[in-house]
């Protein structure tokens, strides 16, 4: 009798604790086929520490680079999947993703940082880590180093050999003047739900924007959903619709990855229509409020969104390649003397 009761109790404890475990763990998306949490565990165990250490320095020197790197991963993943295509320099074979309008405001320095990381990693481990994986880790580290949540990144992406066209870039990214209907439907085509959409937009808690991304809300008429004082201050930074200036995206804590972006939205101080409409629209307003109230909730949902986004249409296994340089496809392998020379040069420059 006694033993039956205690084994029953034991059963209850085991079931409920494993259930709790299950609920939390179940929220973290599993790696898709071909990716894994420990992909480079034996081939490049130092990978993540090399990147983290380098970015600690870079981001300490210029915190803005964190925002640039985070956005770079987003653009990579939304256009043709996380295949490093955004990194390709158009000159290598026709127009690239980089030359499309939304990419004009990607920071030039972000591309340099990624290739510098690639050089350090390849130097330590050989040519085994893809540029797209480096971009995904750099985005995660940018979040962590500005105060955001830490999380594991599924790894094993290969770099693509095809450029995304300018049209594909326009079709897959969302414009800042989009409303919530457009944001939700665009993200739904990528398997991202309303919570993901609101959480991922929270990346705008760090970084800057050019005036031209939002001056449609100031001129000729002021968007009535925008706080008046906020609008007047923006007009001081952006005196004309085509001003080349930039402003911080989160007025409360522009360089800290926190939940203040949602507090901004609740105060009608969101910069883009795509931001502010998340609070106006009844479908997403509750989510915005819940993130404004509870930063850990935002962090949890942001991590889920990032892991989902980071696995969009990845190339794995025998598809794609490990690029020798992040801004260009590898030359065709067989007996290509140019590739050999290039790799020698690469080895040399990595030594110094
Ligand atoms: C809902 C869709 C989104 C729209 C419409 C959007 C739009 C924009 C625009 C227009 C800019 C400013 C570009 C400029 O004028 O300089 C920007 C910046 C930025 N975006 Fe987004 N974005 C979206 C989603 C995301 C996502 C999902 C992430 C990352 C997870 C992200 C991260 C960033 C960051 C960090 C910056 C600042 C970049 C810097 O300071 O260099 N955005 N975004
Ligand atoms: C959202 O934008 C789309 C496209 O511009 C437009 O057709 C639609 O009416 C807008 N929806 C709302 C609720 O404003
Ligand atoms: C912004 O820069 C472009 C290119 O440098 C220039 O043609 C344009 O006149 C500038 N706009 C303003 C408002 O200064
Ligand atoms: C905030 O969200 C977390 C989930 O991340 C939850 O565990 C916690 O109970 C929430 N706190 C409040 C005060 O609602
Ligand atoms: C049209 C244009 O100027 N595109 C540029 C976009 O950004 C990349 C790198 O950041 C440049 O290589 C492109 O020339």
From TrEMBL:
Species: Nicotiana tabacum (Common tobacco)
Protein name, per record: Peroxidase
Annotated GO MF terms: heme binding; lactoperoxidase activity; metal ion binding; peroxidase activity
Classification via CDD domains: secretory_peroxidase (cd00693)
Keyword Disulfide bond: yes
Chain positions recorded as Ca(2+) 1 binding sites: 76, 79, 81, 83, 85, 97
Co-factor binding details: Binds 1 heme b (iron(II)-protoporphyrin IX) group per subunit. Binds 2 calcium ions per subunit.
Amino-acid positions noted as binding Ca(2+) 2 in the UniProt annotation, renumbered to this chain: 205, 250, 258
Primary role: Removal of H(2)O(2), oxidation of toxic reductants, biosynthesis and degradation of lignin, suberization, auxin catabolism, response to environmental stresses such as wounding, pathogen attack and oxidative stress. These functions might be dependent on each isozyme/isoform in each plant tissue.
PANTHER family per record: PEROXIDASE 16-RELATED (PTHR31517:SF48), PTHR31517
N-terminal signal peptide: 1-26
Leading EC class: oxidoreductase
Location relative to the cell: Secreted
Binding site for heme b: 204
Site note Transition state stabilizer, residues: 71
Active site positions, chain numbering: 75 (proton acceptor)
Disulfide bond entries: 44-125, 77-82, 131-326, 211-238
Main location (coarse class): secreted
Cofactor: heme b; Ca(2+)
Keyword vocabulary terms for this entry: Calcium, Disulfide bond, Glycoprotein, Heme, Hydrogen peroxide, Iron, Metal-binding, Oxidoreductase, Peroxidase, Secreted, Signal
GN (gene name): LOC107808896
EC numbers on record: 1.11.1.7
SUPFAM superfamilies, per the entry: Heme-dependent peroxidases (SSF48113)
